[in-house]
Design brief:
about 400 residues; alpha+beta; ten-stranded mixed sheet; six-stranded antiparallel beta barrel; globular
Length: about 400
């Protein structure tokens, strides 16, 4: 995919956040070495001040170790250094997720031009070895069912604010440029009716094995709710494109399996390709994401067997041809099973013609209210999609982010 070149935005808010973060990191290191009389009190006071500053800015308590601390570094970051990806440093240093809000970075034009973050597989990636019981009946693990017939993706009726689908786009900056996935709002048991959690794919927020977290990750619920064409989006206002706001990922977690095994091509890591974001509004509004989006999905981590599922509905914003990312689509089909790695759980697979950009979009049960999976992979021919069966690892990711909130 071609990378997207963009001019850097200068934003005082970022500088303030970075300076405050740097002060929070270095506060206890300041002062004369021989002034020890009130060292314990000063240390406690500094730590408390650090916590207050980070809380006000929406920063995590444990800041990344590679956070810039010099004024020159902070000034460089403010003036656009966030988009300069040194591949060696990214691979070695981007271990902690850090995502300060940059006001107006994701304007309608930049959103429109983001590329789909896809993961394509071919037949050689699929495990067809016999396993899982007699003809695979009564057992899902290690089984690959016949390739499903393609199901043509259908456009979701506009306006999206009336469709009871709390779905949107996830945007991120990567070494290849600005890219886009899909995501959905999840119910948070610790904040009933006021969730700020988003489900997406692990490859939409983290590069996988040997790599690190992407930057400037945001969620836009009900993107382009009236279904403007791509041409119209070029001159659209933010209120037309993102009427429910732009929500920056405050925290992000994905599975250990994806971080250790995920790959850009093929199916490695796909069986645990799941991530959860905790988001905050760019405009500092007090309403929660769930309130703004008008609803949320109930995550299911019981890995129901394929034979017990009547139908799955995959929803997302496909951005690669013949789609252009402007509209929400969905496919409904009875799932089959797909095995990439026999040592990992089999995946759900359905017929679907959605393309890159639909990654991370929700897979819904027949009621349309429960999340069973998210889109992870599909073939170059774009006639099927597969998603992880959400089990213990996915639940641990969800629980961790919920508790951190």
């Amino acid at each position: 995919m071609p990378s997207i070149a963009r001019s850097a935005r200068r934003r005082p808010a970022l500088a303030a956040a970075a300076v405050a973060a740097a002060l929070a990191v270095t506060a206890t290191a300041c002062g004369p070495e021989d002034d020890k009389a009130d060292s314990k009190a000063d240390s406690a006071s500094s730590q408390e001040a650090s916590r207050d500053v980070k809380k006000d800015l929406g920063l995590p308590d444990d800041l990344p170790k590679d956070l810039p601390t010099s004024l020159d570094d902070l000034d460089a970051w403010k003036n656009g250094a966030w988009k300069n990806w040194d591949r060696d440093k990214w691979l070695k240093e981007a271990r902690e997720f850090f995502n300060p809000i940059i006001d107006d970075l994701w304007d309608p034009d930049r959103m429109k031009d983001a590329d789909g973050n896809d993961r394509e597989v071919d037949d050689s990636d699929i495990d067809d070895s016999p396993s899982g019981g007699s003809d695979g009946t009564g057992e899902d693990e290690g089984v690959t069912d016949p390739t499903p017939e393609a199901v043509k993706a259908s456009a979701v009726k506009t306006p999206y604010t009336k469709d009871n689908l709390p779905v949107g786009k996830v945007f991120m900056d990567t070494p290849k440029g600005a890219m886009v996935c899909s995501g959905s709002v999840l119910k948070d048991p610790r904040h009933p009716g006021k969730s700020n959690l988003v489900a997406t794919a692990g490859h939409c927020v983290h590069g996988g094995a040997g790599k690190g977290w992407y930057r400037n990750v945001v969620f836009v619920p009900d993107y382009n709710p009236t279904g403007l064409s791509n041409k119209q989006l070029a001159t659209a206002s933010q209120s037309q494109v993102a009427p429910d706001g732009i929500w920056w990922a405050k925290r992000a977690r994905t599975t250990k399996h994806w971080i250790q095994n995920g790959a850009e091509r093929g199916g490695k890591g796909a069986q645990q390709d799941f991530a959860v974001l905790q988001v905050q509004p760019e405009d500092k509004s007090s309403a929660s994401l769930e309130e703004k989006a008008g609803g949320a999905l109930q995550a299911t981590f019981t890995t129901p067997q394929v034979k017990s599922i009547e139908s799955i509905g995959a929803v997302g914003y496909p951005a690669a041809p013949p789609f252009d990312g402007s509209r929400m689509y969905r496919c409904d089909d009875k799932p089959g099973r797909l095995t990439i790695d026999p040592q990992q759980p089999s995946m759900y697979r359905i017929g679907c013609t959605m393309t890159a950009g639909s990654s991370g979009g929700p897979w819904l049960d027949s009621s349309g209210t429960r999340l069973l999976s998210v889109t992870s992979i599909g073939p170059i021919t774009a006639d099927w999609l597969a998603g992880a069966r959400l089990g213990k690892e996915a639940k641990a990711v969800f629980d961790t982010v919920s508790k951190e909130g």
